[in-house]
Amino acid sequence: MQRSSSPDPIDRAPGESAADSMADSATDARAIPKRLPLLVLLAALLLTALVWQDTRQRVAAEAEGRFALRVEELHRRFENQIQAYVQVTRSAAALFTAYPEVKRAEWNRFVDGLHLAERFPAVTAVAFARVIDQWTGPELVTEARMDGLRGFRIWPDTAGPMRLVTLYAAPVNDRTLRTLGYDLLAEPVRRAAAEQARDSGEPTVVRVVGPRLDEGEPSSPSFLVFQAVYRDGQRPATQEQRRVAFAGLVMTPIQVAPLAESVFGRMGDVAATVFEGQGDFPLYRSRPEASDRPLLTASRDLALVNRVWSVQYESRSSFEEGLDHWKPTLVLATGLSLSLLLSTLLWALAATRHRALVIAGRITASLRRRETELDLLFNQAPLGIALIGPDARITDCNPAFARTVGVARDGLIGTDTRLRAPDPAVIAAIDSAIAGESVRLEVDRLLLAGGRHSHFSLHLQPVSTPGDPPFVMAFVEDIGDKRRAEQHVHYLAHYDPLTGLPNRVLLFDRIAQAAREARRDGARVAVLFIDLDRFKIINDSLGHSFGDEVLRSVARRLHGAMRPSDTVGRLGGDEFLIVVPNIETPGVAAAVAEKVMGQLAAPFTIGGRNFVVSPSIGISLFPDDAEDAEGLIRCADIAMYNAKDAGRNAYRFVTREMGARSRERLDLEAALRRALQNRELFLVYQPQLRISDDLVVGVEALLRWRHPDAGLIMPNRFLPVAEETGLIQAIGDWVLDEVCAQIRRWRDQIGLTVPVAVNVSAQQFRDGQLPAKVAAALDRSGLQGWELEIEVTEGTLIDDIPSAIATLRALKQRGCLIALDDFGTGYSSLSYLHRFPIDKLKIDRSFIHDLEQDGTGDSIPRAIVGLGRSLGLSVVAEGVETEAQLQLLRSLKCESFQGYLFSRPVLAEELEPILALRATHGRHHTPVTEAAERESV
Ligand SMILES: Nc1nc2c(ncn2[C@@H]2O[C@@H]3COP(=O)(O)O[C@H]4[C@@H](O)[C@H](n5cnc6c(=O)[nH]c(N)nc65)O[C@@H]4COP(=O)(O)O[C@H]3[C@H]2O)c(=O)[nH]1
């Protein structure tokens, strides 16, 4: 793999990307191809239009030509047919040329010989009209009658010098017989035609309307062809001579329809309409067609003897179908399709080419970008990367690698890693990687000379690409900081940050380890639980940082005094623990305890102050007292309390009795958990009386536990367990609610107007929720603040004075009264007492107990009463059992008292009569005895 930082080999302006330049070149290259499809399309369309137009014209011309030919042919046939019909008249007239005296029978025979029905169906009859005058008329009638026509007469009865009377008409039938005798000159049109025929000697045609010779076919247009006949059978040369020689007239009525039909009727391809002259009303129209407009039309004139007809020709679909009129459409469709196809093809080609160029541009740009990114990655990666060839020499490395190794890059390239590697593990790893195996390892140094020390993670990855020699990529990371951070985290998790001693976690571990070893070796392990006497006072009075310094000094002394195999640790607060493994006799543990006491005996000097710290030490032994760390610590803790009870600065071993107590405590804990759910807890109440008049001035609520087997259990026994296990929170909440509910009942039932006190444990007081919980409990029962008094011990307040003040203030804000319980037993100090917003001091019953003793027995109660008076606080003496004690308290001007002398703590309903009478009754009333209390609960 060759790294290159040389400029881009392709020459381009700065900032111009490879993709841009490729796209530009693509634009140039595609300029022609892009326009070409359009041009080709236009040209092809133009060509198509031209060819289409030409085809149309050619097809039209061809159609017209074919139509004209067809029309010519038909027209000629029609003309010929007419001539043939006219010829019938001529030939009939010619009969008179051969036989001027043609008789009726000859006429009839002649006409029969014409076979009109077959050959000339349009001819309804061939007739002959003879010229007569007034003399020849009767002859004609006679002749006709002699021919068998008895009813023959000349009609109409018009008297003219000359008449032209229909004499013969064949074929003989009713229709032709009816026409006989008719004087043609009686009707002007016929007369004119007859005269024209007479004068010209040529056939004459007349259009007939109405029933005459064509009678019976009134609706069918017909015409008559007249041909004059002269006396000697010859046509005289001049008109005068023709008038003189005029003998009669041959006439042939011809129906136009059959005549035209014989020509046009069978033609399906062309329709014909025959007009007389240019008239509007046709004489004949060949079968009309459904199709609307004909494609082709033509008009031809026809000279019919002395008249002109015109024939209108129209092409019919069968003719039109034979034309190539589809050709232009085909040409157009083909042209358009080809044009589109061609241009689409060209466009597709151009687009494909363009796309290919764009893609190529993108790929090239992406490759260049990748190359740049790889360069950047290689050169700027925080991870050290080196390339090692098959000969184990470094072929390239990045700046991070050079930095990590601590040697300049130039000095590294070409280095044989096997020769410079500091330890055999690295050499083996390089060999394995060259052999194709991926290897990971951690080392302290990378290079023998010049390299720096740290903690490195080394990953060797063999790389082989086809065609290139294999090489190894070495990734190196300096994980020194990470390692240190891990160590620090480990340290924090296992060591106490204040003293640097092992913490609870590590202590548990060490105890477990020592226990394992001791079990194996049949030895013992001693656990010394050390609590510093009166440390709290030092801490509170001299400040936390001073306290911290004391703890550090103690830690140093303890640590310095122990053997390395021993573990000195701190559990928290002022509690230390020493684990002494592998001891043979308990005496060794006692010696260690004494050593500890000896170490701490010498005064400490901190911040210019000299003071002494004494320890209370509890000792438990493995396996004698417990088998696990938790059990051993718990036992040692109990033993430590024993030492404290014994007067501090002492050590105590766990005794058998202590062990039993410890077990009993565990049982208690389990039972207490159930107690709350099983409603085994209940409250008793003890009244407080004013000494001056024996009136009840307050009531204290006290907790009791009725254990289903053990019977009544007093709070001093179960509350410490509740505190330890955290159950005290739930119990405290229940007590608060229960007391408030009771106050409410008393207020409603007997009009209670004195406060009822409730005890609050240190844990409850410190968790920050107390004011809110108290307010909620008061609200739930609808109480005012003064109806509830909160009793706290001095010890509770002293732990964290500022937050204690804040909590007390919050309670006061809700109107609650505050009483300081067991006053005098703890760290009562005038210096802080005035800072607490309290209402009442309760003199601990131990002082009341001492009252009757001679000497200074009353000094503390006296001082407390004085203190209360000067601070404006009321003072209650607790545990007053005798009349003498009361007497003394009265003499001390103590305000009120509480004790068995007047009443033991009793159930609420038992207290009710006392509360109801409190304003009047005195202490002479029957006191509630201990027996009564036991009975009541
Ligand atoms: N020898 C003798 N004793 C007398 C006499 N008069 C009263 N006493 C006892 O003195 C204790 C006074 O309660 P305390 O100092 O608040 O001390 C209380 C209080 O600190 C705690 N406690 C009781 N109930 C509760 C509770 O509901 N919550 C909390 N947190 N603590 C409670 O338990 C302690 C002990 O309570 P109790 O065993 O009920 O003990 C009560 C009471 O029965 C007497 O004439 N002679």
Automatic annotation (TrEMBL):
Residues 523-656 form the GGDEF domain. SUPFAM superfamilies: EAL domain-like (SSF141868), Nucleotide cyclase (SSF55073), PYP-like sensor domain (PAS domain) (SSF55785). Residues 161-263 form the CHASE domain. It is found in: Membrane. Residues 1-24 are annotated as: Disordered. It comes from Azospirillum himalayense. Keywords: Membrane, Transmembrane, Transmembrane helix. Residues 665-919 form the EAL domain. This is EAL domain-containing protein.
